[in-house]
Every structure is written in structure tokens, then in C-alpha cells.
Amino acid sequence: MTIVEGKVKKENWLKLKEAYKKAADNLPVGLIKTFLIQNISDALAWRIVSIWESREVLEKMRSSGETPGAILVFRVAESEPEVSIFEVALSKEAV
Questions:
Q1: Contact 3/31 with Cβ under 8 angstroms?
Q2: Distance between CA 32 and CA 52 in Å, rounded?
Q3: Residue from 35, 8, 5 nearest 21 by CA
Q4: Mean pLDDT for each 10-residue chunk of the chain (95 residues)?
């Protein structure tokens, strides 16, 4: 799982959303699900949470030399984000 997070000025929220929608139309191989989320207690704080097929798929994308799409989305909104990578220890889906 990757979490890309940054502070986005209110006047750039529409840019962020539009860039996310455009990027989501062309997801990289192995990306299973992605979310654009906004912090309800700090409205300037945004994150893109992405679930990947495997750690290997994620590492292959990261080693390609291309800037990841989530980072580019934030840059369109004039924000330089931070990236965190997590290993999913357990998960459960509601049925």
C-alpha cells in the first residue's frame, strides 16, 4: 500500500481532483484500488491511498525511473507530497 500525502491550498482543490480523475483513467499495471481522500479535521491535508497487487509489482513500478502518477497529481495542484509505503499485515472485506 502506498500513501502519498500533501497540503493543498483550497484554490487548488479542483486541480487536484481533476488531475486525480485523469490519472485514474490510466492506472499502472498491478494497481488494484486507489482513493483520493481529504482530512476532515485539516481540510488542506489530502492523500492518495493505493492498494497494489504485490510488493514486487510496486517495486517494479518504482524502479521504472518514471515519476509515480500520484506524485504528479499533487504537483499539478502545486503541492510537493510525501510518499509512505506500507506492508498490509491483515485485511478483511465485508460481504
A1: no
A2: 5
A3: 35
A4: 98 98 94 97 98 94 92 98 96 90
pLDDT reported for residue 5:
98
Amino acid type, 66: E
- CA–CA–CA angle 85, 76, 47 (5° rounding): 35
∠ at Cα 11 (38, 9), nearest 5°? 55
* CA 40/CA 62 separation, integer angstroms: 30
**Quick one: which of 94, 72, 83, 77 has its CA closest to 10?**
77
pLDDT at residue number 95: 85
